[in-house]
Amino acid sequence: MTLRLSTLLAIAYALGFVLFAVFLGKPAGAEKTEAVVVLTGGKGRLERGMEVLKRGDAKRLLVSGADPSVTRADLARRLGPGTLATLRCCVDLGSEAVDTRSNAEESRRWMARRGYKSLRLVTSDWHMRRAAYEFRSDLPKTRIIEDAVPSRPSLFTLFAEYNKYLLRRAALWLDM
Fold it and tell me: What superkingdom does the record give (predicted)?
């Protein structure tokens, strides 16, 4: 009985991993939201958030988890000419978050201060499932559009993220 149960759990875990790896987050269309939240740490995330803002699909952008020493001028140098004005008018740098869970908490406080009820979440495709889960848990009444930045994650990255996702779901299920 124990062997059968262990085998069933191992098969379910492996199948879950395969599905997780095959069905990564996708980029969103041009749907409008009040805010864009970009989670730091991945290539192309900030550029995607700025693209959404410049297109007029959101009013304001939060860069959640930014290093406290990073300035708008630093971001303008990275993003290229013509971005400093947009960064000054419409971008907030949040430096309170240190992980995905605190990204959601920081974003909730920022959204509440501004009175926003909808956001576009921008992060890497491999990170989107866990990030969206955290955000939906922390902002249950907020309309969240998932906007994943395509990447080429390694097998190790996918494996680590899958395990983090499972552990976080279990922790929330156990109310931890």
Answer: Bacteria
